[in-house]
Description:
heterodimer; A: mainly alpha; two-stranded antiparallel sheet; 14 helices; globular; B: globular
Amino acid sequence: MSQVKGGPRNDAGRPRSARRNRAGRPSAALALPGVLFFAFFALAPMVLAFYLSFTRWNGLGDPQPAGLANWRKLLSDDRLTQSLTVTVGLTVVSWAFQTVISLLLGVWAAGRQRNRAVLSAIFFVPFLLSSTAISLLFYALLDPNFGIIHKDTLGTTSGAFLAIVFVGGWQFIPFHTLIYQGGARQIPEVLYQAAAIDGAGRLRQFFSITLPQLRNTATTSGVLMVVGSLTYFETVLILTQGGPGTDTAILPYLMYEAGFKSYDFGYASAVASFLVLAATALSLLMVKLSGFGAMRSTREGM
Amino acid sequence: MSHDTLPRPVKTDSATTAERPARRRGHWARRANPLAGAGSLIWLAVVIIPIYAMFSASLTHQDEALGHNALKPPSHPTLDNYNTVLHNGFGHLLWNTVLAAAGVVLIVLVLCVPLSYVAVRTRSVWSGAAFRLFLLGVAIPAQAVVVPLYLMIAKLNLYDSLLAIVLPTAAFAMPVSVLILTGTLRDISEEMYEAMALDGASTTRMLFQLVIPMSKGGISTVVIYAALQAWNGFLFPLIFTQSDGPRVLTLGLFNYVSEFGVNIPAILASVVLSGAPIFIVYLVARRALVGGLMGVGGK
């Protein structure tokens, strides 16, 4: 894959040097503790979740086999359809909102001026608070009797939806701005000089140089955003409890309610398995798109 | 290193031409851009207003809070709310969080540095497969496995302990850590390994005398990333602990809501206090923190 993508500019000398010597090739045993630990606490639970989705379990005693009951219930559950719609909607809107702002801010912040450095330092501050703290902050600021707006924002479907999108963006845009800033600083300056000599204006340079050069950065950042928005659990739990009604009950929240509120852990596991499938598909897509799997230096070919 | 082969002369040349005043169109970054400036000021307002409102409200008397607009400064500023929070076990929560973060960082470093070294330096089928496994792991949301983990934690007799938070948090911090570390490790050139091999160094010695010193940047990013994961973690503490003993900050904040009820100023004071330690770290180590994270999305 790397050959198709990178062409002759990367990896060119690699096969030769690899054959030439084996200096610094550690034994795979060094990796074993890490792999085992990860397998036990992250991969085994995934498999176990799938198994538990075929059982009945209320959290006490041992899970009892239940056949396909949970899956049958899940696939005929209206809440699943609604939850999927909300999850996808939230992901797409969050992605668009965060990408536009962090791309613009990141490219702007990549300039070396002092005022930009100072503002960037302030822009980063929201990222220092935990999701819980940020959700509580906006819970207070959106309180109709106390906060800024004095309207029941969280009581309406669109208000609650937009509040979650905004709060997620407020928290994570600083991080993605930083990613874009790093990406923009790696764009060789010669490209802009050449374009300026050709008479390309600032807008033209942005669309013809900056955007295409940030393609890989956008993929990384975008995937992190999409995966991240699957975990807006705290925000939903604190801001809306899935409400009004079940209008903001994203998949993780549906899982939490089924498991830790209704003690129907078999059903919760079926929802969780659904999440695993979605996440795995996403990460496979990421590996394909970003070329992470190609194992090449991030600096080669620069 | 390969990026040193960049046409450097052109770069120095550009610096001198840019200094020359008003020579044709200036470089894009060197001319004022009013539109971008305005945009950044708007975002500044979006960032600052909630933070300002948080501070101002946390200094408001509780009886003034009802019907109050959070943007209005308090008429009689008070520290009572901070007092209330500090007398509600805040120190204990903070200590637990620091312990948990230290544990997560330790586990992640000890496991991920050798693992990334193997992933980058060996080309066996197995190490490739292991690396791909971690790539897949990047996308697994913790929510998806919290039910089976709950069962496992209970069977391991770890329920309601700090370890119940630390172990899974560390496991879920591993994929991105491996990604960051392999990124830095790939930049260590073949020649350096060869030079050390000529000196008769073992791979363990290379790990400690070449790999670790050369990947300091990546390691500090991973330290920050893992610590933030532990600092922000909410779901694992919520589900794997129950009593006051192992309670961490995020869960403590969440519980303050039911404890303080409508006392919004006290809730906001607790939010301010929970952010303060990280904010101090940010002031002291801003360069390392920001510089490290900036590399995540590099090319």
